[in-house]
Amino acid sequence: MMSATSKITRFEVRSFGLVPRSGSSPFTKAVAVSCLNTVRIQNRLSDCQSNFLKTDSIVLNHCESLQASRGYCGSRGLRSCSLFATASLQSRGLRNSCLASHRSGSQYSSELPVAERKAVHLTSLRKLLEWLGEAEDRAGQDAQALQDQGPHQEEHSPSPENLKAELAWMVEDAVAGVHGDDGSFSEAGWRDVVRGLPCPWREALCGGAVPDTVLATRLSVGELTELWRKRRLEERVPIQYILGSCHWRDLVLAVGPGCLIPRPETEQLIDLAEAAIASDPGLASGPWADLGTGSGALAVSLAQILLNKASDRPAEVWAVDASPEAARWANVNVIRHGLQDAVRVAVGKWGEPLAPVAGELAGILSNPPYIPSEKLPTLQAEVRRHEPRLALEGGTGDGLGAIVDVLECAAEALRPGGFLALETEGGHQAQAIADALNSGFGSCPAVRFADVFADAHVRSDYYGVPRFLVCYRA
């Protein structure tokens, strides 16, 4: 979950978001994030299948992603705040390859992202380019129409550049390969196809210089039109729901209605957990929990980390959500990443399903609802209309209701020395909780846990917003 500031103004990063924060442009902030994370990629290249990837190609692909990055509902940034995400996806050969052949027999095949479905259409390259060109030409007009739809929309609606980026992602996910004259099929991503065109392709299209190539696609031009005009622009459905996927760290998560779209800021909770384990390796030997798991992003990423740590017991992560629909999506993603033995998805409110491990948890991560109820009407249409309210609303006043519930759960479930990191709205909300835990004074409802937790402090997100509360069970 994200702050009112973040959720209202973020479109994520295929990850850019609707993000006007403290004066800096979203593009400037995304570039800054990419620079900070370049070191992470270089240091973690050994974790990738490096035979598929060279350092130079990371930089090249990342530069491309700055121009074609994916977001929540419209976008202004990288696929993920972690530049490592791009490297890892490339190294695994996931870039637009069709994984449906590996998963088509799964009971979860209906949740396959568009980019992983089988190609069932033959589409003229010229017709696809004509559609894309016309849609891009209308982007300015469409963006203005979205801004005029009601209060709060002008600041938080996607720009023409956002819409053009989303169009590129739709085409990228739709194209599976090239259909030869002899009936053969050659797997090729959209970028591979475009690289072979005269540049600029718009002029080549007008001049008749674009070859009459036949593409194998997962969506027809008619389906693209329906999804774009009706679902995206008219109904304001988030692009992640339309394409069925969200790029988060080194994961490609299946997402859809009933599941909160993972935000890029939340990636940092994994960084905080890694740092805690590095400081105290014993934390890797106990069970962990992700409270309010949603898509399962935190649980899946955390399980991967724990599996890579030497310990005297198998990795064990409890992914808890009160919503059966969200838990279903989490289970889909656990299975997608082959972590059924490491992650237990449980339906229940906060600590209710954790009775078997009460007092034993080595750590808890949580991205709880924290937007004050009165701010919900100001959320961007994509969030307000389509994402689950249960995952957004933190309650009246300061919106601390769910956060206090997490603290109460952590007090019972964590073992002494256990680690807790949770996301907040940022600013006053995060600092008020930390101050209450450290001082034992004040009106913040978290004050009653002052004797339960130690070393409470606030950590800033990638954009400099003081967002994360970190503490330890006393």
From TrEMBL:
Single biological process term from Gene Ontology: methylation
GO molecular function, one term: protein methyltransferase activity
Domain of life where this protein originates: Eukaryota
The keyword Transcription is annotated on this UniProt entry: no
Ranges where the record places region Disordered: 140-160
Protein keywords: Methyltransferase, S-adenosyl-L-methionine, Transferase
Keyword Lyase: no
Compositionally biased spans, kind Low complexity: 141-150
InterPro entries, alphabetized: DNA_methylase_N6_adenine_CS, HemK-like, RF_glutamine_MTase_cyano, SAM-dependent_MTases_sf
PROSITE patterns: N6_MTASE
Extent of the signal sequence: none
PANTHER family per record: PTHR47441, RELEASE FACTOR GLUTAMINE METHYLTRANSFERASE (PTHR47441:SF3)
NCBIfam families: hemK_fam (TIGR00536)
Protein name: Release factor glutamine methyltransferase
GN (gene name): HEMK
